Amino acid sequence: MAGEEDDNTWLIELESALLDRCSPQEINHITKGKKIPDSLRPDVWLVCLNCQEAGNQLLLFDEIFDLSNQNVLRDDVKKFVKKLDNDDEEKLAVISDIESIVTFYCKSKSISYSTNNGWIDILYPLLSLKLPRSDTYNLFEKVLKLYIPRGCVTNGVPFHILRLVLQYHDPELCSFLDTKRITPEHYCLPWLRSLFAGTCNLEVVLFMWDLYFQRSDPFFIFFLCLIMIVNAREQLLQMKNEDKMSIIKMLISMPGDLEANDVSDFCSLAHYYSLKTPQSFREDVLEVLFSESGLEINSKLYSQALCLPVAVHELIESATVDGVDGDNVKFFLVDCRPAEQYNAGHLSTAFHLDCNLMLQEPNAFNTAVQGLLSAQRQALAAGSLAAGEHLCFVGSGRTEEDSYAHMVVASFLKKNTKHVSMLDGGFVAIHDYFGPHMTDCLEEHNISSCLVCAPNNNNFNNETHKTRVRDNIPAIQLFSKLSSAMKAKSQEVKGKLIEYIVNPNATVNNGEWHVSAGDRKEHRYRNVPPVFSINDEDDDSNSDSRRDIISTESLEEIVELQTFLKGQNIVDKFQCQEVLLNGYMHDSYLIVSDTHLIILREIPNRRGFAKILSRRPLSTIVKITAKKRHPELITFKYGIPDGDNLLIKDMDRFLIPNASTATKVVSNQIVLQLDNKIQ
Length: 679
Prior knowledge:
Strand content: 5-15%
Number of strands: 17
Helix content: 40-55%
């Protein structure tokens, strides 16, 4: 009974909020991704689409059905309704509603109807709400205005944008489709035009739109499309010997396999990818595809883009001290300008990769690339401010040099490197962004040698890349944050880079967590971030990488046991024995906090005291396994994403008397963390 009351609490809260004229964000906070009940969905959608006070626009309809292609519209409506399971009387009502709404919409907007434009598909879920026709019209108008991207035509901008997003997250799959000459317009036109209403069953569409409208994010459709594609990557890559039309047919049919039970995971994955996509690109695209400005869309800007463009304000803000956030995109900045330009001024967190080396000294270039990737991994492990999983390349902002920089970027894409972007406007954009504060923000800035400050030094008046300049007030607030501490971190990683380039085969064992050839890979589930799973395994010894001996050189943290166990953020504790690979066992405590799995080992000669062996972030737990024959023997595996696999980096094994309870507590806490992120 208590569970049922809990299940109904949010419904009561939602009903009350609707009566109080709540916002879509408040609805989202209450529902937490749950499916809206049929009885409340009409009110929720009216709120989310801001239609409560829209009035009855159909009063202006003269009921004259005289569009130039009225017969085409009528035939399309009849064909559509014929496929429905409704009885004949309901079918007639649906035909009347759809034709009336579409006819009035065309007349009021002075536009023409065209077959397969998605309008009829969009209307069907709206009609299922059984609202008055006037409310249905208002919802229909808002969906088209707010959520259907402009330019869904042959060679349209939305398809180029989706390809850039796919390339950013899965360059291998994007390259495969490019090789087959398959572009998004071949398969996702009905997805975008109807928000999947024309390709998924009604139950799926209703649940998907419940979540979609609460987000109030028009760009989210691109991430839904992305998940639909990458979710089938293995199947697609296995079709390399199939003809183009077979692959397109398979892609077109994918949304039809989606079931209502999949929708929540589907949207959660899309949300994850949205967090891992540069925000400035999304902001610019929203202006292009969803604004009412009437500006002409420049298709070439996106169709000819080598990779995803990033605005200078996002690049700079991501590198500030207080800009560190697990949900923000963090960039590893690669400056591709010629050496003399780099030496005349650069960001302190930028790593130099001379684009001229690629043609002049290929071997040195390849060594430098390996060094950069190694430095990137070590910077991530060290938590450096210069660290970032996303590569952002910076050219000069001058057409001539940027052609070489493009070659460098293309070389990374050819190797299927994920999360590759290029700074829009190059170094010129950085220089302009800081304005009078550039001396404080740029390292080694030399006014006499800088080509932006002294353009006559090298024909700088040649064509430069034009980029939109945002109000640079944030630069005034940010320049002081590019502090000496930040530069020190940058120099630390640069030192490792130089060491690697000088001696690339040297093995550096500095205790930092970085990728090595011996790391074990495990398959990831549907290209998602690290997720946990509790499996039975007969033998997982091959994955053991846990150190048997704790370094005596590391600083030990000694705590008073009972005081520590009563800490505010402690969720639960379990007495156990830690099992090392050599068979030794140590009396220990497994502590579950809000955010970490903490391992304490009792100190034999100091009663009541223990030392903290490790604090494992819950977000790094990718597997929890148990032996079939010894279910109390539990292994926690930790890892990071590596392409389509998970890289298992470390593990802990325990003998836990109450193992099922312990694993349940850990699992629930991981889920709670994920839920908090999604909210």
